[in-house]
């Protein structure tokens, strides 16, 4: 069931979203060659403490997971697409890093992700990241009252496919509110004019996940969480929490 949010609730979600944006900003500041993903997680925990917020990621255990998630952010490096558990392996110059973060504040959730290069970026990685961001912007642009879920999916998928990238099979965005994951599902590819109508008060986490090699398939790491490209190509992830309003889409996970 889709839960429509009041304007007051959207304002409260904006505060949670601001904390998420602070986490992602801190992660980019801390990330450097020699720094470990666990150190990024420690920095994220400090942001949460400073804000009086908590993490919806920590100890989260969906049906597919063999164990609860042990961190407050996901850090996915190079061929890891999403759900990477922060490790003690130092980042290297040229790594492509995707950080996915959430926050719970005042009973409301925010969720967003960003991808970036450590040190000197590979041109191919820059293009991949830029395309993920463009796909996200296209999806947000389609998130208007009167459109449908399929319009968001089509906007994202069109950008991804035109660039020759794969789309993570079976994964996409979702509703968000009191819980991190709510109805409806928001696919990253689909037919325009199909699916649930978009209404004022819907809040969605829109999140393209692109696979650089052009395939949609993935494999699981032994940890049961991390999803990797099957061909070893790199991946990028971009996400914002977006409120659908009569005045147009409102991005809640910015500073």
UniProtKB/TrEMBL annotation:
Its EC number is 3.4.11.18. InterPro entries: Creatinase/aminopeptidase-like (IPR036005), Pept_M24 (IPR000994), Pept_M24_MAP (IPR001714), Pept_M24A_MAP1 (IPR002467). One of its GO terms (molecular function) is initiator methionyl aminopeptidase activity. A divalent metal cation 2 binds at residues 111, 174, 207, 239. Binds 2 divalent metal cations per subunit. Has a high-affinity and a low affinity metal-binding site. The true nature of the physiological cofactor is under debate. The enzyme is active with cobalt, zinc, manganese or divalent iron ions. Most likely, methionine aminopeptidases function as mononuclear Fe(2+)-metalloproteases under physiological conditions, and the catalytically relevant metal-binding site has been assigned to the histidine-containing high-affinity site. Residues 11-246 form the Peptidase M24 domain. Substrate binds at residues 83, 181. It catalyses: Release of N-terminal amino acids, preferentially methionine, from peptides and arylamides. Pfam families: Peptidase_M24. A divalent metal cation 1 binds at residues 100, 111, 239. It comes from the Bacteria. SUPFAM superfamilies: Creatinase/aminopeptidase. Its cofactor is Co(2+); Zn(2+); Mn(2+); Fe(2+). Belongs to the peptidase M24A family. Methionine aminopeptidase type 1 subfamily. Removes the N-terminal methionine from nascent proteins. The N-terminal methionine is often cleaved when the second residue in the primary sequence is small and uncharged (Met-Ala-, Cys, Gly, Pro, Ser, Thr, or Val). Requires deformylation of the N(alpha)-formylated initiator methionine before it can be hydrolyzed. Monomer. PANTHER family: METHIONINE AMINOPEPTIDASE. This is Methionine aminopeptidase. It comes from Streptomyces stephensoniae. The gene is map.
């Amino acid at each position: 069931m889709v839960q429509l949010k009041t304007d007051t609730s959207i304002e409260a979600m904006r505060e949670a979203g601001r904390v998420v944006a602070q986490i992602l900003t801190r992660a980019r500041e801390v990330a450097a060659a020699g720094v470990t993903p666990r150190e990024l997680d420690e920095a994220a925990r400090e942001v949460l403490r400073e804000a009086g917020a908590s993490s919806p990621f920590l100890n989260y255990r969906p049906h597919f997971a063999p164990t609860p998630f042990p961190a407050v952010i996901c850090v996915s490096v190079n061929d890891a697409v999403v759900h990477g558990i922060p490790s003690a392996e130092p980042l290297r110059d040229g790594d492509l890093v995707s950080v996915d973060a959430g926050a719970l504040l005042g009973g409301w959730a925010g969720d967003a992700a960003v991808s970036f290069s450590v040190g000197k970026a590979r041109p191919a990685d820059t293009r991949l990241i830029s395309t993920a961001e463009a796909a996200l912007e296209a999806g947000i642009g389609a998130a208007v009252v009167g459109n449908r879920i399929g319009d968001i999916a089509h906007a994202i998928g069109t950008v991804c496919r035109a660039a020759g990238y794969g789309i993570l099979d079976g994964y996409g965005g979702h509703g968000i509110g009191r819980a991190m994951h709510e109805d409806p599902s928001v696919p990253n590819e689909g037919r325009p004019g199909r699916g649930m109508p978009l209404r004022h008060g819907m809040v969605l986490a829109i999140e393209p996940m692109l696979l650089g090699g052009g395939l949609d398939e993935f494999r699981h790491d032994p940890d049961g969480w991390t999803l990797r490209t099957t061909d070893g190509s790199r991946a990028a992830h971009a996400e914002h929490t977006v409120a659908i309003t009569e005045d147009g889409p409102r991005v809640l996970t910015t500073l």
